[in-house]
């Protein structure tokens, strides 16, 4: 017959007993375990490059202004009007009255948008190379455009506002084309 085993349930173990048991199991009591030197701290990540916050803000403002120009569509009867900040308001008034004589003229009336844009860009390059100061661009009023928006008029407005060589532009008086044309002052430098 077999004997009954003694009571195998140990008394409650304390945390100090657990630590002593662990050290005995790994041989720390007999000098078999050595303490490792502390690890060097991990390298610090490189500092971020300085951000050009002002340049980024200026670019964001320019993008917002450009989007506003693109989303603001002109109607058939709206006059075109723009002047750079360094141009006096009186010059824009004289342009609106038709006081400047157009030295050259481009008629885009009735052309497809892609053709009109290419012709307008070429025309402005030619005007600059010939040092012309004031030109007239006929874009039409756009009354027969789809969606009742003047496509060419909005194209001319957007493209002229983007160019650095355009000082100012305004729709001329009715005798010179009214809201179907625009007088443009160009930088001859």
UniProtKB/TrEMBL annotation:
The segment(s) forming the Smr domain are 106-187
> Which keywords fit this entry according to its UniProt record?
Endonuclease, Hydrolase, Nuclease
Record-linked Pfam families:
Smr (PF01713)
The GO terms this record gives for MF are: DNA endonuclease activity
Any coiled-coil regions, as ranges: none
Q: What is this protein called?
A: DNA-nicking endonuclease, Smr domain
Which InterPro entries does the record match to this protein?
Smr_dom, Smr_dom_sf
- Please list the residue ranges that the record marks as compositionally biased, kind Pro residues: 37-49
* Residues covered by region (Disordered): 29-61
Q: What SMART domains does UniProt report for this protein, alphabetically? A: SMR (SM00463)
Q: Which PROSITE patterns match?
A: SMR
In which domain of life is the source organism classified? Bacteria
Organism, by scientific name, is: Thermomonas hydrothermalis
């Amino acid at each position: 017959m077999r004997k009954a085993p003694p009571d195998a349930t140990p008394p409650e173990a304390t945390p100090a007993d657990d630590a002593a048991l662990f050290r005995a199991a790994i041989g720390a009591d007999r000098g078999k375990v050595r303490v490792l030197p502390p690890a060097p701290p991990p390298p610090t990540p490189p500092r971020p490059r300085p951000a050009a916050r002002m340049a980024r803000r200026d670019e964001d403002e320019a993008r917002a202004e450009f989007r506003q120009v693109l989303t603001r569509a002109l109607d058939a009867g709206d006059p075109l009007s723009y002047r750079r900040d360094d141009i006096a308001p009186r010059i824009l008034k004289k342009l609106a009255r038709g006081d400047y004589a157009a030295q050259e003229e481009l008629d885009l009336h009735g052309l497809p948008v892609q053709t009109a844009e290419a012709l307008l860009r070429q025309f402005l390059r030619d005007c600059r190379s010939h040092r012309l100061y004031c030109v007239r661009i006929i874009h039409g009023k756009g009354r027969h455009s789809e969606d009742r928006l003047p496509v060419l008029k909005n194209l001319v407005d957007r493209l002229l506002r983007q160019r650095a060589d355009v000082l100012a532009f305004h729709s001329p008086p009715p005798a010179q084309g009214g809201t179907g044309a625009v007088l443009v002052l160009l930088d001859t430098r």
